[in-house]
Fold:
Amino acid sequence: MYGLSEKQFHLFFERAERQKGITGTNLLVLLERRLDNVVYRLGFSNSRAQARQFVRHRHFLVNGKRVNIPSFLVKIGDTVEVREKSKKVQALQESLEAVVRRGVPQWLDLEKDGMKGTVKGFPLREDLTMPMQEQLIVELYSK
Structure:
């Protein structure tokens, strides 16, 4: 779903396991905080794969600095914005027009005119509507 390799996913699982709290929920929160996923959730792309490509091609700034690492983890208060040169990219503009249908999660705030989004908080398990049984993932990787 998130377009990760097995090795990348396992590393995220290990990081989630080290954190306090429920491992499955921690894993989902970490995956949602990835820059490529935040770009997708804000509506700057039509898919996570497209968001990953946009990030790799340096179309986005995080807190005013260029970031081209899709696995970059955003924090509360971070701003994700489209670079000035990239605002003319047709695919980005079309994706933003389609965001009205899909909506933006509560933990993100989108400023559509400025092509900018802000992370208001971390996602809660209730915010993630995907049909995922994280307990099965935890059981598989705990072996």
About this structure: The mean pLDDT is 89. Residues 6-141 form a domain with the Structural Genomics Hypothetical 15.5 Kd Protein In mrcA-pckA Intergenic Region; Chain A fold (CATH 3.10.290.10). The chain has one domain: 6-141.
